[in-house]
Amino acid sequence: MARSMLCLVSIFSIFYIAACIDDNCAACNAVAAELEIQLSKEKPRSHLDMRHRLDSKGQRQGKVIDYRMSELRAVELLDGLCEKMQDYTLEKIDSSRREWMKVDNWDILTIDKQEAKAYSKDISSYCGRLLEETEDELTELIKKGSIKVGDVSKVLCQDLSEHCGGLRYPLSMMLFFSSFFRKDKCKSKL
Q1: On the chain, which terminus has fewer CB atoms closer than 10 Å, C or N?
Q2: Model's pTM, two decimal places?
Q3: What is the distance between the alpha carbons of residues 112 and 118, in angstroms, rounded to a whole number?
Q4: By three-state DSSP, how is residue 60 classified?
C-alpha cells in the first residue's frame, strides 16, 4: 500500500512540475538555442594529452584524446547551461502567443520585472529537469560529434526528450492527472 502511494505521489509531482511550464516545446527550444550559442562560441582546442605515466624506458604511456570527442567538452558545454537560462523570460507576442527571449538588460524590460524573474526561474528549473532526463544520451551524442550548430533543437527537443512532436505519456494519462493540478498553484502563470 505504501509503495503504491509513493508511486502515485511521484507521478503527481512529475505532472505538477510539468504543469508550471505550459509549452514544453517552446521552453526546450529556448534551452537548445542557448546550447547552440555555446557551440558557436567554442574555440578550437588542441587534443587532450592523457599520457602521464612513464614506462620502464622513459616513454610516456596513455592516450591522446581529440578534444571534440572528449567528455570534457560535453561537460564544459552543459555545465552552467541552466544558470544561463536565468537570462531568459517569457515575452508576450500577442494576446494568444508568448515566446521565450534572452534578456540582455533587465532594467529596460517593459513587462513586470517580478513576473519576468519568476519566468526565468521557471525555465532554469525546467532546464535542470530536461538535462537530468537527457544528459547521458546528450553527452554521448556530443562526444560522437553528432551535435552540430543548427540541429541541437531537433536532437534535444524531438529525438531525446520528445517535448516537440511526440508525447512521452499517453494522452489519456495526461488528461486524467491534469485535472488534479490547477495552474494557479504554480509560481507563475504561463
Answers
A1: N
A2: 0.67
A3: 10
A4: strand
Hey, which residues does 92 pair with through a beta bridge? 98
SS3 label, residue 173: helix
**Cα(77)–Cα(139) distance, integer angstroms:** 9
> In whole angstroms, what is the distance from residue 139 CA to residue 131 CA?
10
b/e sequence 41-58, b meaning 16+ C-beta within 10 Å:
eeeeeeebeeeeeeeeee
- Backbone φ and ψ for 25, nearest 5 degrees, come out as -65, -45
Question: In terms of pLDDT, which residue wins out, 75 or 178?
Answer: 75
* Grid coordinates given for 111: 513587462
DSSP H stretches of helix in the chain: 2-19, 24-41, 71-78, 81-84, 113-144, 152-153, 171-178
pLDDT over threshold 50, residue 25: yes
User: Is the four-CA dihedral 107, 109, 110, 114 of positive or negative sign?
Assistant: negative
Half-sphere exposure of residue 119: CA atoms within 13 angstroms, side-chain side: 26
CA distances from 183 to 17, 21, 25, 166 (A): 11, 10, 18, 23
- What is the rounded CA–CA span in Å between residue 114 and residue 143? 39
SS3 of residue 1 by DSSP: coil
Nearest Cα neighbor of 89 from 109, 103, 105 is 103
